[in-house]
Amino acid sequence: MSYSARLADTALEASVVGSFSRVGYEIRRHVDHWEPFTPRPGATAVVTGATSGIGLATATGLARLGFTVLIVGRDDGRTRRAREMIVAASAHRDVDYVLADMADLASVHAAAAWVTSRVDHLDVLVHNAGAITPTRTLVSPGVDVTVASQLLGPFLLTRELSDTLARGDTGRVVTVSSGGLYTQRFTLGALEDQSGPYDGATQYARVKRAQVVLTREWARRFDPAQVVAHVMHPGWVDTPGLRASLPGFARVMGPWLRTPDQGADTVVWLASAAPARAVSGALWLDRRRRHEHAVPWTRSIDPLADQAALWEWCAARVAPARRGPPSPGSGVARFVSP
Ligand SMILES: NC(=O)c1ccc[n+]([C@@H]2O[C@H](COP(=O)([O-])OP(=O)(O)OC[C@H]3O[C@@H](n4cnc5c(N)ncnc54)[C@H](OP(=O)(O)O)[C@@H]3O)[C@@H](O)[C@H]2O)c1
């Protein structure tokens, strides 16, 4: 990276607004001379939350590169429509879908089984599904829907698909976090703390921080020759999710928000570019590794102990999903062919 590119990037990071808005995307794209994406015909990707926003743009971007794309959605109509949109926008028909609610571990388990029955190896797994949930919604004792859908569901899907990921040419797991992670210190107990009033944005930011911690642990556990794990944040992106959860922010920032394609750029790059195969466990924004902390008080005393504890905590909570088939009507994954 040239001196001027480094200087521009440092100034952008310090400004936050410049970094997260479309200004950051445009400047970095220009000064870093971003290469076009690498086509990967024959490669296979699973993308969660592909019905709108960044996930839809990611799935479309991967389909354009020749990936077989398997999308995971929770609503039949929306997921079917998304598939049609991806096929139309990419002129690539090899797009299939399965229904699963990422907060419902039985349906995640069934979706993983569908994927392994559908492909003999998996190159890319993108954990994108996510939202800010305004009220505390428990899916099991001590586990709210934010933790279930953005931490436990992805944990289970990764674990169930890890053999399939390891079978191909260096599988890649990419998790879409959020810049909100910089506001939180990782504390395992806070994920299930129900003692005080619920603040959806704070719980979301805690989970987004936990995704970074968990990615480091996946990177430690995987053989990097077989599977690498990345976590990225997309900046501020004009999506239905952002407009619904932060309408005032979306209105004020309107012209400065990134497009969904811009928000998805680093996901598609991590899924397809050669340099992203040689690194594991890192946090990314705009095709570059980023520091995990913006302020000293979010730093952990013992990051390795945190990541090991989080992994064990997730493993203990997803264990029941492995016990036998899901009961009827509990969000069983449906098997859909084009
Ligand atoms: N937009 C931003 O500025 C921004 C910034 C930082 C991070 N992010 C992250 O980017 C990711 C995508 O968000 P977005 O802005 O593109 O929002 P979006 O347009 O609302 O898309 C969210 C996707 O996640 C799916 N989803 C949510 N909960 C789910 C669940 N329990 N099971 C299955 N699917 C579920 C949604 O499916 P339905 O269609 O069924 O609702 C939808 O496909 C999220 O992880 C978000 O945290 C976004």
Quickly describe the structure.
With 338 residues, the protein is α/β, with parallel strands linked by helices.
SSE diagram, text form:
Elements: H1 3-15, H2 17-20, H3 22-31, E1 44-48, H4 53-64, E2 68-73, H5 76-90, E3 95-99, H6 105-118, E4 124-127, E5 138-140, E6 143-144, H7 145-166, E7 171-176, H8 188-191, H9 200-221, E8 227-232, H10 240-245, H11 247-253, H12 260-272, E9 282-285, E10 288-289, H13 303-318, E11 335-336
Parallel strand pairs: 1-2, 1-4, 2-3, 4-7, 7-8, 8-9
Antiparallel strand pairs: 3-11, 5-6, 9-10
Helix pairs in contact: 1-3, 4-5, 4-12, 6-7, 7-9, 7-13, 9-13
The structure holds NADP nicotinamide-adenine-dinucleotide phosphate (NAP).
Residues 49-55, 73-75, 78, 101-103, 128-131, 149, 176, 178, 233-234, 236-237, 239-242 line the site of NADP nicotinamide-adenine-dinucleotide phosphate.
Radius of gyration: 19 Å
Query: Beta-strand percentage?
Result: 5-15%
> CATH topology, what is it called?
Rossmann fold
SS content category? alpha/beta
- The number of distinct helices, counting runs of at least 4 residues, comes to 13
Instruction: Provide the helix percentage.
Output: 40-55%
Please state the average pLDDT score: 92
Give, in spatial order, the strands making up the sheet with the most strands.
10-9-8-7-4-1-2-3-11
Largest sheet: 9 strands, mixed
Q: Please identify, by name, the CATH architecture.
A: 3-Layer(aba) Sandwich
Domain module count: 1
For the record, give the distance between the C-alpha atoms at the N and C termini, rounded to a whole number. Answer: 44 Å
Shape: globular
CATH homologous superfamily descriptor: NAD(P)-binding Rossmann-like Domain
- CATH class label: Alpha Beta
